[in-house]
Amino acid sequence: MWLKPEEVLLKNALKLWVTERSNDYFVLQRRRGYGEGSSALTGLLVGTLDTVLDSTAKVAPYRILHQTPDSQVYWTVACGASLEEISQHWDWLQINIMRTLSVFDSGDDITSFVQGKIRGLIAEEGKGAPDTQEQERFREAVLRFEHLFGLPRQEKLVTYYSCSYWRGRVPNQGWMYLSTHFLCFYSYLLGNEVKLALPWDEVSRLERASSVLLTESIRVCVRGEEHYFSMLLHLQQTYLLMQQLAAYAVTRLFDKETFDADHPLSDPPRITQRALEVHARNQAFRAFFRLPCEENLCEVYESFLWLPFSHHNTLGKICVSERYLCFASQDGSQCHLILPLREVVAVELVDPGSRALSVSVRGKRGFRFSEVRDFERLAATIRRKCVPSTSPQHSAVTQLPLCDDEEEMMVGQKKAVSTEALMNVFHPHDTENLDPKMLKERMKEQLWQIHFAEYGRGSGMFCTKKTRDLVVRGIPETLRGELWMLFSGAVNDMAVHPGYYTSLLEECMGSSSLACDEIERDLHRSLPEHPAFQTDTGISALRRVLTAYAYRNPKIGYCQAMNILTSVLLLYAKEEEAFWLLVAVCERMLPDYFNRRIIGALVDQAVFEELIRDHLTQLTDHMSDLSFFSSVSLSWFLTLFISVLPIESAVNVVDCFFYDGIRAVLQLALAVLHHNVDSLLCCSDDAEAVTILNRFFDSVTNKDSPLPATVQQATGDRSAQPTVDITDLIREAYENFGNIQWEEVESMRKRNKLYVVQTLEETTKQNVLRVIAQDVKFSATQLEELYWLFKRQHFISCYWNQSSSTLLNHDPSLPYLDQYQLGHGQFCSLFSLLLPWGNSPPSNTHTSFCLADQNEDGLINFREFICALDVLYNGSFTEKLKFLFKLHLQPGRGKFDLQEYLKQWQDELQKKDDNIKHLPRINQTQFICLSKTLYSVFHGDEEEEHLYCAVARVTSLLLRMEEVGRKLQENSPTKTPPTTTSPTGTHSSTLDTPSDTPGDPPSPAAGGDWSFSFEQILASLLNEPTVVRFFEQTVDADTLIEYARSAQLRDARTHVK
């Protein structure tokens, strides 16, 4: 165990310790009298001495001391009861500490670092203490977290770890705090304080790394800066948790289309480490067994499963959810099994001695599990969950006939729902055909029938290596729909939702939406060469499936490529089955593919690039930029190669996809590049490479396809070029790249999603800045920093508020300028931090918000924000004064059209004109407020006294001018409205602000108020050099932006309630 470092003055005190291992910084010692080679007399003497010196404790026989070459003082850092135990600590120090210590210059620094690290490890181990102690330590950590980083109390600390943060080549030992929205680190060592608060939504890279200096570390990239954390006691556990938190933040804040409001982690304050671990486990469970999204892993048992086809037991794990019992082997046999509990008819305890139980399902089939540690509990669980359902059941083998209502179902026209796969209608299976291709097709069918007899059919079929081998050969035409349903898990969706598709069609019948318009546009572009989609039968079925899915999932609606995929599904599956296959593909097997930003497809492109670097190094060496392969292969992934291969070849790819998921597509894509690697290495440009790949796809055939020539897609004259059989190509893909594991692909997906999302965000930023840079005078760097501040302010409003208006209004499909917007409170907070005059009254920020809100939706986009700020930072004296003048133009006692004024102000912001003649006059109350604002703006300036005097002189001058105007009006014999002459010589009427009483002369004398025009105020202030100099002095934008960055989170704490 690790020990709190304590001094030991004499390394071999009384010669009671023997050195077993040593290096420059650590010594492993054994207590004399213990271990091999120790005499009984020595052990007796040492034991007696231990008893005399300390009768209440037993000295551990092994220990590790820390030393430095230039010191005679040693420190105990670990002890152990056995050599094995102490060796684990020694090895950990060798791997994680030794290389690091070489970067320190002095022995004191080394000792301080080691002591801090050991104390952190002790605290880390203490987290596994009894619940009361652990809770107390966690509460203390929460208090430290809140005190150190100043975040609102709503920011939930998930967990904390002892680690080292690397600043250059020097490690800083401290604590890492992982909260729902921030990765934080704090260290204070030798007077050097390090404090970090990195938002998860700004993380672009999160991965494990290693180097000569850092054996193992976690690399975090935020806005181009790299941060390294190492010396974690449980590095992999920490890394996975960080990955989950980053993925959660990205999905919730950026990818709202795919974030479910009922998500188990939808409420940030309720997120805990346990909840994250459970959620990750459930996701992996559902993905591996292709189960519906509502399934959660309830219990796990280790057991043996009897395999009747090979007559032996295979070791694996039983996973039980609400409605399924699943088994996955762990001995390399690649056998897995899925038993819907609705199919279970009996559970028996067959052999208590071997802890075995038998599970019987419909069809007189049984499964024997043995060596189950708690087999009685498992049996009770299965009995409780397999209560027979009264709802009709569907299976992959039998299909209930449609009811009368379903037969009459139609969408837009009177066409019955198709109850047959389109291939059976347009190309029925001819059992008497003796064509060689048909004979091969029958042989395939016979092989599958033999497989069904040995391994089972439908739900409960054993899936093994032999099953994959048959899939690689190509599934027979007559079995394709059934096996697609089984392998994808769609058969379970349809079974637990009987009648769902029919009711969905009833609800969406006759509906009109943007998705429906897009579907109609693409209907006749879906496999137009196939006879099934040259008639109303196929087109109507395609319309119904796509419309029903768009109605079911409006977040996705309809996206291009869905029509091509659905067309192929309808060829081999009945209409309702095709619908559930589409659900399985869009919502489970290809997550995030079919949305506006196709994030899932882009993520898999990044995974593809990574696999190219690992498996096709010759291409990597030849091409520095692999993004070309990502762009050219996008259609391969979106359509599962259907868009680039003839239909008779593409269906074999779809076979493998439904069995192995995206891994099969990645393997085939690598095989395509591998097959053409020599030609690609000789390419001089991208266009030539595209030509080579297109020519290759044209040469791919399916020599065993039983489809007639009228159904097959012609790809030109193949006689002049060698052909490649699709079966051989797929087999080559599995042979060369079959070592790619499902877990590896999922890990790469998670790792690359952060990069893909941040790349899209970077594109959005560049587009916004490119448009706005033309209208403002900020530098490119300042504009970028202001954009980050604006964006962070947007997210701060979303961090701790699940129903934030800005989060609900965030839509990635909106124009770039409108994707991020601020509400009133968020705008006022950020605007106040960035004001060049820090003492402006709060009411002014409120008025600024009203003026900047052009469309009156209560939200401010970045253009509106930056244009207002640009006036204060880079505007002329006149523009700044006009801005302040307008801030105080609120509806007064006279008749005043605020909406008309706001429209005028917005037009001026767009036109950038200097028209000041048509501004409304400012009344008495408003002028007083303007004067107070000027006083507050001037407060703290070096010339504060002179500025105050200047404002007083201007105010006195304007009042005297108004008095003269009043006297002239009183002495005038006529009732015509008088005019006053401004110091600039411009005549301005005093009746611009009429009284409240309709029909009364709008005379200022009637109400006793006075007013001024903007021209009068401007001309008066132009005569005061100190005021002009104050407003025309250069604003230090960089300093203000840096201040806002440091104060933004602190300011958020005061506003979050």
Report what the structure shows.
It is a single chain. This protein is an alpha+beta fold. Helices cover 50% and strands 15% of the residues. The chain is built from 42 helices and 27 strands. The strands form seven sheets. It has a seven-stranded antiparallel β-sheet, with helices on both faces. Strands 16-15-14-13-19-18-17 form a seven-stranded antiparallel β-sheet, covered by helices on one side. A hairpin with a 4-residue loop joins β13 (299-307) and β14 (312-320). The two termini are 44 Å apart. Residues 51-58, 389-415, 891-896 and 975-1007 have low confidence and may be disordered.
In short:
The protein is of the alpha+beta class. Helix content is 50%, strand content 15%.
Task: Name its key features.
7-stranded antiparallel β-sheet, alpha+beta, calcium ion binding, 27 strands, PH-like_dom_sf, GRAM, GTPase activator activity, 1057 residues, metal-binding
The count of β-strands is 27
Q: What spatial form do the alpha-carbon principal axes imply? A: globular
How do the strands of the widest beta sheet line up side by side?
9-8-7-6-12-11-10
Helicity level, as a percent range? 40-55%
The helix/strand class is: alpha+beta
Mean model confidence by pLDDT: 81
Strand content: 5-15%
Distance between the terminal alpha carbons, to the nearest Å?
A: 44 Å
Task: Count the DSSP helices.
Answer: 42
Largest sheet: 7 strands, antiparallel
- Using only C-alpha atoms, the radius of gyration works out to 38 Å
**Low-confidence runs of at least 5 consecutive residues:** 51-58, 389-415, 891-896, 975-1007
